[in-house]
Amino acid sequence: MRKALFLDRDGVVNVERNYTIQIEDFQFIEGIHALCSEFQERGYLIFVITNQAGIARGYYTEAEFQQLTDWMLEAFESNGIHIEKVYHCPHHPDFGGDCECRKPNPGMILQAKFDYNLDLAKSILIGDKESDLQAGRNAGIGQNILFNGTKIDHQIIPWQQL
User: Fold this and answer.
1) Sign of dihedral through CA atoms 54, 56, 60, 66?
2) Known catalytic residue: 128?
3) Annotation marks residue 98 as catalytic
4) Which of 105, 148, 155, 160 shows a CA-CA span of 20 to 30 A to 35?
């Protein structure tokens, strides 16, 4: 079983803006590439898990979301970082009902565990909202870290506990 780093997208990978869908509006959080590089060197698989209620609300389409995601993944790759997969929830309870994938539900994390044979107890999640952390706890992730800044660095991780 392998260990993983789970990252929320808006607010952790990129600066939080309401319903970011345009490439020109996407701004990486300072330090995210260095952090991911360090995790990659330590043998972690890296995943992005993101609620995308803008799809359910009709603000943008799955195709538009995928286009931005492909661009983001290429940007990571150009920095030597491989993101294993981006899991997203296109649902919103007010527009179609409840689902198992929308955080704080653990569906995206559990799907990654199934798809990649992950040891969630040895994995880490970084989120910017309590619902992110709750999803991690609900899935059994060993460390759930709240990030609410503008620059991310390795000091937010208690490395000595890993």
Assistant:
1) positive
2) no
3) no
4) 105
